[in-house]
Amino acid sequence: MIDHASRTPFPYEHRDFTGNCEGSVMAVNMLRVTSRRFVASTCQRSSSTLAYADRLDYPAPPCRFVDDVDLSADMQSLKAKEQGDWKSLSVDEKRALYRLSFDKSYSEMRAPTGEWKYIIGGVFGLLSVAIFFYGLQKKFIAPPLPITMTKEWQQDQMKYNIAIRNNPVTGLASKWDYEKNDWKK
Questions:
Q1: Cβ contact 4:21 at 8 Å
Q2: Of 114, 119, 116, which Cα lies nearest the Cα of 127?
Q3: Are residues 121 and 105 in the same domain?
Q4: Strand partners, 182
Q5: What distances in angstroms separate CA 122 from CA 23, 112, 135, one per listed residue?
Q6: What is the pLDDT along the chain (185 residues), one digit of tens a residue?
Q7: Which residues, in sequence order, are CB contacts of 62 under 8 Å at separation 6+?
C-alpha cells in the first residue's frame, strides 16, 4: 500500500477527508502543457537590443547612449579614467562622460520642441480644405435657395400677415398701428 501522506501533493491535486488522492488526469495534463508553454515563452531570448530613449517619465534608460563598440580611442581612454577618482576629472571630461551615457540633460528634455506649430498648421490646413470643399459644394452642387428665402418675399409675407391681422395679441399684428398705418412706437 502506498502512503499518500508521506509525499508532497502535486498541484491541482485534491484530497478528500480520508487523505485519498482524487487527482484529475486532465488537470495534471493541463499543468504539463501550460508549464511547457510558460517555459517556452520565457526562455526564448529576444534577438533585439534595447533602444535608447530620453524620457522624463523614465529618466535613466538601462542602456547607454553610445555603445562601447562605437567609441573612439580618446573616448575609450576617458572611459578608463571614469573607473578612477572623479575629482581628478575636469568639467569637460565629466560632460563628455555624461554624453556617452545620456543624449540629453533634464533641461534639454524639458525644453519646448516647437511641435505645437505643426499641430496648429495641420489644423488650419484641414480647416482650409474643409472650407474649400464647402465653397465648391455651395457653388456647384447645392440647389439654389427657394424663392421664399429672398428679402422681397419675406417683406411681402410680413405685409400679408399684417393685412390679415395675424396673431394680434403678441405677434406681428400687435406691433402695427392700423389707424396710422405704421409701426407702434
A1: yes
A2: 119
A3: no
A4: 177
A5: 65, 19, 20
A6: 555 555 555 444 444 455 554 445 555 555 555 544 444 334 344 556 667 888 888 877 878 888 878 888 988 899 888 889 989 999 999 999 988 888 888 888 899 989 999 999 999 999 999 999 999 999 999 998 899 999 999 999 999 999 999 999 998 899 999 999 999 98
A7: 50
Closest CA to 82 of 96, 69, 72: 96
Residues 117 and 73 in one domain: no
Residues 92 and 123 in one domain: no
Joined together, the cell numbers standing for residue 140 give 456647384
Contacts of 176 (CB under 8 A, 6+ apart): 162, 182, 183, 184
Distance from C-alpha of 136 to C-alpha of 123, rounded to nearest angstrom:
20
Write the secondary structure of 126-158 as one string of H (helix), E (strand) and C (coil): HHHHHHHHHHHHHHHHCCCCCHHHCHHHHHHHH
Residues 62, 92 share a domain: yes
> Cα-flanking dihedrals φ and ψ of residue 33, to 5°?
-65, -45
* Residue 185 identity: K
Residues 123 and 138 in one domain: yes
Q: Is there a contact between 101 and 71 (Cβ–Cβ < 8 Å)?
A: no
Backbone φ/ψ region at 3: left (φ over 0), alpha (ψ -120 to 50), beta = beta
Structural domain boundaries enclosing 164: 147-183
